[in-house]
Every structure is written in structure tokens, then in C-alpha cells.
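Subgroup meeting minutes
Present: P.N., E.W., G.H.
Scribe: E.W.

1. P.N. recapped why we're keeping a running log of single-chain structure predictions: easier to compare across weeks, and new members can see raw inputs and outputs side by side.
2. G.H. added today's entry (120 aa).
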Amino acid sequence: MKRDMELVRKILLETEEASNNPIEWIVLNIEGYDPVFISYHAKIMKEAGLIDAENLTTLSHFEWQPKSLTWEGHEFLDAVRNETVWAKTKEVVKSKGGSVSFEVLKELAIQTFKSTFMSP
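Output recorded in log:
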């Protein structure tokens, strides 16, 4: 499966909104995405340190569910939360070939945020 940064952002937004109790699992239903694809992204986001998530996989069912954001997850979400910043960030990535590492994407989003909201 390919990593989908749009889905990563949506998972972060939904997890933040739903995480009233960090010991409860959050069931993600994101329109337009297959549940297995969402679970895969929850798994790799946990591996990347963006969310706290649990593996609820059984012999016949693959499922990962988040519980809360980590510090790093909050940091990235703060950089990409604004729709304008996110759209500009994706535009730059697309113009450069369409694929960048997570760290480059985060740095680009921070720079885009600064240039959008902090320039005189």
C-alpha cells in the first residue's frame, strides 16, 4: 500500500476531535477510504510516532485504531491544520514531483504557514 498524506492528515484531525479519553479506541470512518487502508495508515502512523494506536487484528480481520495523538502528531497537525496552508503545501510537493519524505513535508508545511500568516 502507498502512504496517503491526505489520509494521514484526516486521521490526525479525527483523532484529535474524538480523543476525549486516551484509553478508549477511536473508530475511524473516513468517507472515501477503505477501512483496511485506514487501519494500515493508523499502524504506520503509530510506527512514526504520530499517534498512540492499538492493534486489534484477528486471524480474519486487520484493524488498528488510534487512542490519541502524540506530541509529534500534534506538532504535525498544527503545521497542516489550516486548509490554505495544506493546499499550498500539496501544490509545492506536486510541482516537485509528487512525493517527499515526512520530515520534508512537515518542514515545508511550517514554512508555508510562516509565509502565509507571519509575513508583513
